[in-house]
Each structure stands twice: as structure tokens, then as C-alpha cells.
């Protein structure tokens, strides 16, 4: 079944309430994270906080999904939980938002199982690319003002000896990390997106 992009819903009171609730849940999920020390440096932790924005984007449209992504990061920053002066939150919005937008935009064009699968696969690719760019140009330069970039690269080298500079760190640490994170969210989304969509569209 084909569909149209739900851009108008984001301006309704009902949708704004849903965006607020999902954004708050996403903010809470940001506190639930797990490091994978055998695969990535300890400062990289897997969390599923983008899942609420993804499910909201699928149900309510890509603009709503981005609004949820923005809200959870705004809450993180405004409540004083940021440790990067907002840089981490900006990067999280760019990376997570690229995934949410891609999936929900494609699904809005093709509202069936093939649409969500194509969207998720495309989203994984886009998020991985955006994650690499955001880390190379935003996150790693910021952290180099706090910790020498050589130390960060050394953390990567301890896991994978082919990592010798910033570009190889991005290729062999950041890219696999975002690929794994996006894949986990995709696996979690598939069995619940349709039920969540029905619930969110049922509540007026």
C-alpha cells in the first residue's frame, strides 16, 4: 500500500503531545547504555535512545521523527547532563537524525513491510556515513581539545593495530560502531513498528 508523507501531523496538538512523550522517553533511554570494551574504546557506548524517534518517525512522519530526536538531545543539554558543551548532543542529533529521517521518509513513500526494510537498510548506510563525517569533523576535533588525539587513536590501536591516525580510527572504530548501533535498532524496530504505528495513530 502506498502512502503520502505525513508532514502536516507534526503541527497538530495531538502529535506535539506524542512528540513530547517520545522525546522524554528517548531522553531517559540515553541513560541506559553499555560499553563493548572488546570491540570499541570505553567512551563509545551502545544505547537505543534513537528508537523512540525512529518509531515516532515511522508512525507520524519524518518531521515528527526529527523533532523527537531534537527534543531528547535538547533535554540532555538543558538538564546539565551534557559533558561536551552541546557538541555531543549536536553530533547525536545529526547521526541519529540521519537514520530516523531516512527510514521514515522512505516508509512514508511506501507504507508496507518492503518500505520499512528498504528504509532500515538505507538508514543503516546513511547513519554510518554521517557518523563518520560527524566524528571526523566535529566530535574528534572537540575531544582533541580535552584529550590529545594521539591518546584517542591509541585506544583504538589497542583494539585494532591497523588504526594509526584519525582517518583509520573513523574507518575501523566509528564506522563499525554506528553500523552495529543502527543494525540493533533495526532489529528491534521490525517486530514492533506496525503495532506502535497503530497505537500512535489511534490515540487522538
Key terms for this structure?
204 residues, mainly alpha, 8 helices
Characterization of this structure:
- By secondary structure, the chain is mostly helical.
- Helices cover 71% and strands 3% of the residues.
- It has 8 helices and 2 strands.
- Strands 1-2 form a two-stranded antiparallel sheet.
- Helix 1 runs antiparallel to helix 2 (50-60), helix 1 packs across helix 3 (62-78) and helix 4 (87-109) packs antiparallel against helix 5.
- The two termini are 23 Å apart.
- Residues 1-10 have low confidence and may be disordered.
What is the topology?
Blueprint (H helix, E strand, L loop, with lengths): L12 H17 L3 E3 L9 E3 L2 H11 L1 H17 L8 H23 L3 H31 L5 H11 L6 H24 L3 H10 L2
Antiparallel strand pairs: 1-2
Helix pairs in contact: 1-2, 1-3, 2-3, 2-4, 2-8, 3-4, 4-5, 5-7, 6-7
Listing every helix as H and every strand as E from the N terminus to the C terminus, the arrangement reads HEEHHHHHHH
Count the strands?
2
Outline type: globular
Major sheet, described briefly? 2 strands, antiparallel
Beta percentage is under 5%
Q: If you average the pLDDT, what whole number results?
A: 91
Q: In what order do the strands lie side by side in the largest sheet? A: 1-2
What structural class results from the helix and strand content?
Answer: mainly alpha
Amino acid at each position: 500500500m502506498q502512502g503520502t508523507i505525513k508532514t502536516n501531523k507534526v503541527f497538530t496538538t495531538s502529535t506535539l503531545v506524542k512528540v513530547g512523550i517520545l522525546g522524554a522517553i528517548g531522553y531517559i533511554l540515553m541513560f541506559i547504555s553499555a560499553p563493548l570494551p572488546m570491540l570499541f574504546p570505553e567512551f563509545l557506548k551502545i544505547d537505543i535512545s534513537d528508537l523512540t524517534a525512529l518509531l515516532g518517525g515511522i508512525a507520524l512522519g519524518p518531521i515528527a521523527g526529527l523533532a523527537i530526536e531534537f527534543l531528547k538531545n535538547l533535554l540532555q543539554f538543558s538538564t546539565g547532563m551534557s559533558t561536551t558543551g552541546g557538541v555531543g548532543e549536536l553530533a547525536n542529533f545529526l547521526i541519529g537524525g540521519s537514520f530516523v529521517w531516512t527510514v521514515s521518509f522512505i516508509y512514508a513513500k511506501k507504507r508496507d513491510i518492503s518500505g520499512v526494510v528498504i528504509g532500515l537498510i538505507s538508514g543503516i548506510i546513511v547513519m554510518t556515513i554521517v557518523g563518520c563525517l560527524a566524528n571526523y569533523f566535529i566530535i574528534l576535533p572537540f575531544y582533541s581539545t580535552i584529550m590529545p588525539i594521539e591518546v584517542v587513536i591509541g585506544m583504538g590501536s589497542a583494539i585494532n593495530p591497523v588504526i594509526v591516525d584519525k582517518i583509520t580510527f573513523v574507518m575501523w572504530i566509528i564506522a563499525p560502531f554506528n553500523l552495529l548501533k543502527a543494525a540493533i535498532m533495526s532489529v528491534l524496530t521490525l517486530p514492533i513498528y506496525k503495532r506502535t504505528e497503530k497505537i500512535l495513530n489511534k490515540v487522538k
